[in-house]
Each structure stands twice: as structure tokens, then as C-alpha cells.
Amino acid sequence: DTGVSQDPRHKITKRGQNVTFRCDPISEHNRLYWYRQTLGQGPEFLTYFQNEAQLEKSRLLSDRFSAERPKGSFSTLEIQRTEQGDSAMYLCASSLQLEAFFGQGTRLTVV
Amino acid sequence: GIQVEQSPPDLILQEGANSTLRCNFSDSVNNLQWFHQNPWGQLINLFYIPSGTKQNGRLSATTVATERYSLLYISSSQTTDSGVYFCAVRGVTDSWGKLQFGAGTQVVVTP
User: For B97, what's the count of Cα atoms within 13 Å in the CB-facing half-sphere?
Assistant: First the structure.
């Protein structure tokens, strides 16, 4: 068990570009979550998958954001036409039951 | 949705001191977790404690679900305890996916 893994750890992009992040959950975990954290705040929920089904999306997840979990294993989070306000830490978590385990996060900076 | 309040927002301790962090929540919960966010941004699981008392080394936690609060105790603090401590809960009426985080307690332990 190597824990939840996220890639890349850091991403700097120009405004208007598209970016994609990857999350590999703990292997036996069927639930996967994405959160976003801005400076000085607690993480905020974005979306949740059970196996390959996306069961919930936050209102924070605008039309520019899309998440997939095609085979019920890893997940990707894509942000299209990035804006400076998208700069944040993007955290992925997974769980088998109620207790969630988080990855190291991907820190996005939009310049 | 469920509201989570953490106190104090900031805490400065001398090495060796003890402290108590508090988490109040506004509704019944089926999940409560305490996390420590390290300087690199990763959320480290401390306790999964929707009710009762647990101890892990110098840390312990108590959740009194009927009174809607949880306490995290740090004893004999060390400089490595510095960081932000988050409480996160899932209300019984919330969907499975959504953990609601408090704003955190920033802890600084000085040598």
C-alpha cells in the first residue's frame, strides 16, 4: 500500500491553457474524491466517484472542469481555459468505507 | 449544509507544552477525522473518530457526538507538531462524498 498518489506535484501554466491532473487511489479503494484548497482555507469538496460513476459534483466545479475515472481505478481532473482564480492546491482522496486518505496534492499556479 | 468551527485559529507553543484544539459542528455526523497538514501540503490522517476517545502516542482525541464537538490533545509538543490541524466531518444527511472541513488551527511549536 503506497497511499494515494498524485501527479504532477506542481504545475505552472499560462492563463487560458488546459491542464490535467492524475490521481491514483489506494488499490482496493472504490471511492475517490477531489478537493480544492486555496491559501489559508480548508479543503473544499469538488466531486466524488464510486467506482467509475461520478455520483456528486459541487457547484464549485464549473463547466471548465471535468473529472473522469474511466476504469474505476485512477482518475483525472482537467481544467480548460485556466484562469488565475484556479490557482490552488488540488487534493485527491480515496476510501473503502468512511475514512478518507489524501494524496500529496497538485499545486497549480496560473500566471 | 453542516457547519464546522475550529478554535483557536492560531496557537503558539513552547516545546514540551500541552494543548487542546477544538472542533464544533452543527449537526449529527457519521464521520469525523482529524488531519495534520504538513508544510508540503499533504493531509496526514491523525484520527478517524466519529465518537469516543482514541490515543496515538502523544496525540489523543475525544468526540462527544451528542454535544457536537471534538477535541484534539497534543501533549509534550515537539517542533515537528507544527502545521495546520484540520477537523473534517460528514453529516448524517450529507451525501457519501462530501467531507466538510473547518478552517483549521495553525500550530507553531518553538524550540
Answer: 21
Q: Does B43 touch chain A (CB under 8 A)?
A: yes
Q: Which helix or strand (DSSP H or E) is residue A108 part of?
A: strand A106-110
Chain A touched by B45 (CB under 8 Å): yes
- Which is it for strands A31-37 and A88-95: parallel, antiparallel or unpaired? antiparallel
- Does residue A16 contact residue A81 with C-beta atoms inside 8 Å? yes
Q: How many angstroms separate the Cα of B20 from the Cα of each of A18, A32, A99, B8, B69?
A: 44, 32, 23, 9, 13
From first CA to last CA, the distance across chain A in angstroms is 36
Q: Is the pLDDT of residue B40 over 90?
A: no
Q: Return the C-alpha cell found at B67.
A: 454535544
Given CB atoms, is B30 within the 8 Å cutoff of chain A?
Answer: yes
Distance to chain A for B40, nearest Cα, Å? 8
Q: Is the pLDDT of residue B96 over 80?
A: no
- How far is it, in rounded angstroms, from Cα A86 to Cα A95? 26
Q: Say yes or no to pLDDT of A1 above 70.
A: no
Q: Which amino acid is at B104?
A: G
Q: Which residue in A34, A53, A54 sits closest to A45, CA to CA? A: A34
Provide the residue type at B110 as one letter: T
Q: Categorize the per-residue pLDDT at B39 as very low, low, confident or very high, splitting at 50, 70 and 90.
A: confident
Judge whether residue A104 has pLDDT over 90: yes
Q: E strands within B1-111?
A: 4-7, 10-14, 19-25, 29-37, 43-48, 52-56, 59-64, 69-74, 83-91, 100-101, 105-110
